Write a sequence for this structure.
């Protein structure tokens, strides 16, 4: 893993933006894997700025998001589809038929998961997967205990994840208990991975990741086995290392 240590959230977002601008401009048909959550908001805001300044275009970009809550319609403001549209897609020149986010409201979720895997394969795989990390080490919504061989599937959310994500909902009871998530193997199949980590709530997870012990009890630890991972991490998140 290539660790890039930065000062704070803003610098993390700037460096991550530089990284993606470079990939978007150098790949002919970039296939990006995208993540939701607080960590990537600054990155998406800056990508919109880069687009407005004419430095990048999304015309040839295809995207696959990591995950979506089960039971939320795309029009639901709490859905990841809505989040991505508001935070990025509707502000840039991406063609929405190149945008992929699992449909958590599909009537046949198993079929939805298979179709998602097929769509990734058909696009030629993910070139650059942007990842955040959960305080418990989850990647996507793959919670501790998930087999490293997992593919896109319906997953149960940990209590701690439900608690952590309750900030986006009116009450903890509203937080869905399941999600559709790209699998760990799906994530590991991407050609390159960009992990962004910020803040002291991630310090323990970061320390564990850097220890290098690989275990299904700590899903992100598998990243130590991928040969092209860049971690952009701020000082607060490195406080435990
Ligand atoms: C969330 C999402 C992930 C995200 C991670 C960290 O629950 N499912 O895709 O990367 O957990 O989220 P945050 O950046 O809000 O800390």
């Amino acid at each position: 893993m290539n660790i890039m240590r930065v000062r704070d959230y803003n610098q993390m977002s700037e460096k991550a933006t530089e990284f993606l601008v470079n990939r978007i401009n150098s790949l002919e048909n970039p296939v990006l894997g995208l993540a939701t959550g607080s960590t990537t908001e600054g990155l998406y805001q800056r990508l919109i700025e880069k687009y407005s300044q004419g430095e990048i275009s999304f015309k040839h970009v295809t995207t696959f998001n990591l995950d979506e809550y089960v039971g939320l319609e795309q029009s639901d403001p709490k859905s990841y589809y809505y989040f991505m549209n508001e935070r990025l897609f509707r502000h840039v020149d991406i063609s929405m038929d190149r945008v992929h986010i699992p449909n958590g409201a599909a009537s046949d979720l198993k079929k939805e998961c298979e179709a998602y895997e097929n769509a990734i394969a058909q696009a030629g795989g993910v070139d650059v997967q942007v990842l955040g990390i959960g305080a418990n080490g989850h990647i996507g919504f793959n919670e501790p205990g998930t087999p490293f061989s997992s593919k896109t599937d319906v997953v149960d959310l940990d209590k701690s994840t439900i608690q952590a994500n309750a900030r986006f909902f009116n009450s903890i009871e509203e937080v869905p208990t399941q999600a559709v998530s790209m699998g760990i193997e799906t994530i590991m199949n991407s050609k390159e991975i960009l992990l962004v980590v910020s803040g002291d709530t991630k310090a323990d997870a970061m320390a564990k990741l850097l220890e290098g012990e690989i275990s299904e009890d700590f899903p992100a630890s598998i990243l130590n086995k991928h040969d092209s991972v860049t971690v952009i991490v701020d000082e607060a998140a490195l406080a435990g290392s």
